[in-house]
Specification:
Blueprint: H1 2-28, H2 35-49, E1 54-58, H3 63-92, H4 99-113, E2 118-122
Antiparallel strand pairs: 1-2
Length: about 120
Protein backbone atom coordinates (compact mmCIF):
# COMPACT_ATOMS: atom_id res chain seq x y z
CA UNK A 1 0.00 0.00 0.00
CA UNK A 2 2.88 2.36 0.77
CA UNK A 3 4.31 1.85 -2.70
CA UNK A 4 1.02 2.74 -4.37
CA UNK A 5 0.69 5.81 -2.15
CA UNK A 6 4.25 6.87 -2.92
CA UNK A 7 3.77 6.41 -6.68
CA UNK A 8 0.57 8.46 -6.63
CA UNK A 9 2.25 11.11 -4.46
CA UNK A 10 5.15 11.22 -6.89
CA UNK A 11 2.80 12.07 -9.75
CA UNK A 12 0.55 14.46 -7.81
CA UNK A 13 3.05 16.58 -5.89
CA UNK A 14 6.23 14.72 -5.01
CA UNK A 15 8.29 15.29 -8.13
CA UNK A 16 7.73 19.04 -8.29
CA UNK A 17 8.36 19.48 -4.55
CA UNK A 18 11.47 17.36 -4.67
CA UNK A 19 12.90 19.23 -7.66
CA UNK A 20 12.26 22.57 -5.95
CA UNK A 21 14.01 21.36 -2.77
CA UNK A 22 16.95 20.07 -4.85
CA UNK A 23 17.33 23.33 -6.76
CA UNK A 24 17.10 25.32 -3.55
CA UNK A 25 19.70 23.07 -1.93
CA UNK A 26 22.07 23.50 -4.86
CA UNK A 27 21.71 27.27 -4.65
CA UNK A 28 22.36 27.21 -0.91
CA UNK A 29 25.48 25.08 -1.34
CA UNK A 30 27.16 27.75 -3.47
CA UNK A 31 28.55 29.40 -0.33
CA UNK A 32 30.28 27.70 2.57
CA UNK A 33 27.82 29.23 5.03
CA UNK A 34 24.86 27.84 3.08
CA UNK A 35 26.05 24.22 3.01
CA UNK A 36 24.19 23.14 6.20
CA UNK A 37 21.00 24.64 4.78
CA UNK A 38 21.58 22.88 1.47
CA UNK A 39 22.01 19.54 3.24
CA UNK A 40 18.70 20.03 5.07
CA UNK A 41 17.07 20.92 1.77
CA UNK A 42 18.39 17.68 0.24
CA UNK A 43 16.93 15.70 3.18
CA UNK A 44 13.57 17.38 2.65
CA UNK A 45 13.80 16.60 -1.08
CA UNK A 46 14.20 12.91 -0.34
CA UNK A 47 11.25 12.91 2.04
CA UNK A 48 9.12 14.94 -0.38
CA UNK A 49 9.87 12.43 -3.14
CA UNK A 50 8.86 9.27 -1.22
CA UNK A 51 7.08 10.19 2.08
CA UNK A 52 4.80 7.22 2.83
CA UNK A 53 6.36 4.78 5.29
CA UNK A 54 8.90 7.31 6.54
CA UNK A 55 8.77 9.78 9.39
CA UNK A 56 11.05 12.14 11.25
CA UNK A 57 12.57 11.69 14.66
CA UNK A 58 14.22 14.18 16.96
CA UNK A 59 17.93 13.41 17.40
CA UNK A 60 19.73 14.74 20.43
CA UNK A 61 20.15 18.37 21.24
CA UNK A 62 22.22 20.53 18.95
CA UNK A 63 22.16 23.42 21.37
CA UNK A 64 22.46 27.04 20.35
CA UNK A 65 23.82 26.32 16.87
CA UNK A 66 20.85 24.12 15.98
CA UNK A 67 18.39 26.69 17.32
CA UNK A 68 20.16 29.50 15.47
CA UNK A 69 20.12 27.58 12.19
CA UNK A 70 16.43 26.76 12.65
CA UNK A 71 15.58 30.41 13.32
CA UNK A 72 17.60 31.54 10.31
CA UNK A 73 15.92 28.86 8.16
CA UNK A 74 12.48 29.94 9.42
CA UNK A 75 13.09 33.61 8.66
CA UNK A 76 14.59 33.10 5.20
CA UNK A 77 12.83 30.19 3.49
CA UNK A 78 10.94 28.14 6.05
CA UNK A 79 7.81 30.24 6.19
CA UNK A 80 7.42 30.26 2.39
CA UNK A 81 7.81 26.48 2.16
CA UNK A 82 5.41 26.08 5.08
CA UNK A 83 2.72 28.15 3.37
CA UNK A 84 3.18 26.26 0.09
CA UNK A 85 2.72 22.92 1.88
CA UNK A 86 -0.33 24.21 3.74
CA UNK A 87 -2.00 25.36 0.53
CA UNK A 88 -1.19 22.04 -1.16
CA UNK A 89 -2.51 20.11 1.85
CA UNK A 90 -5.78 22.01 1.93
CA UNK A 91 -6.27 21.57 -1.82
CA UNK A 92 -5.50 17.86 -1.61
CA UNK A 93 -7.92 17.39 1.30
CA UNK A 94 -10.83 18.72 -0.77
CA UNK A 95 -11.39 15.24 -2.18
CA UNK A 96 -11.72 11.98 -0.27
CA UNK A 97 -8.98 10.33 -2.33
CA UNK A 98 -6.63 13.25 -1.67
CA UNK A 99 -6.90 13.19 2.14
CA UNK A 100 -3.87 10.88 2.74
CA UNK A 101 -1.83 13.07 0.41
CA UNK A 102 -3.00 16.19 2.22
CA UNK A 103 -1.89 14.66 5.51
CA UNK A 104 1.56 14.03 4.01
CA UNK A 105 1.69 17.65 2.86
CA UNK A 106 0.86 18.78 6.41
CA UNK A 107 3.60 16.48 7.78
CA UNK A 108 6.09 18.06 5.41
CA UNK A 109 4.86 21.54 6.32
CA UNK A 110 5.78 21.13 9.99
CA UNK A 111 9.17 19.75 9.04
CA UNK A 112 9.81 22.66 6.68
CA UNK A 113 9.49 25.11 9.58
CA UNK A 114 12.10 23.56 11.88
CA UNK A 115 14.27 21.00 9.97
CA UNK A 116 17.52 21.03 11.95
CA UNK A 117 17.83 18.38 14.65
CA UNK A 118 15.55 15.90 12.90
CA UNK A 119 16.41 12.64 11.19
CA UNK A 120 14.30 10.83 8.60
CA UNK A 121 13.62 7.22 9.61
CA UNK A 122 11.55 4.35 8.25
CA UNK A 123 8.27 3.99 10.12
Amino acid sequence: MRTIGNLLWLVIAGLSLSISYLLGGLLMCITIIGIPFGIQSFKLAGLALWPFGRTTMRVGSGGCLEAGFNILWLITVGWMIFLAHLVAGVLLCLTIIGIPFGIQAFKLSTLSLWPFGREIVTA
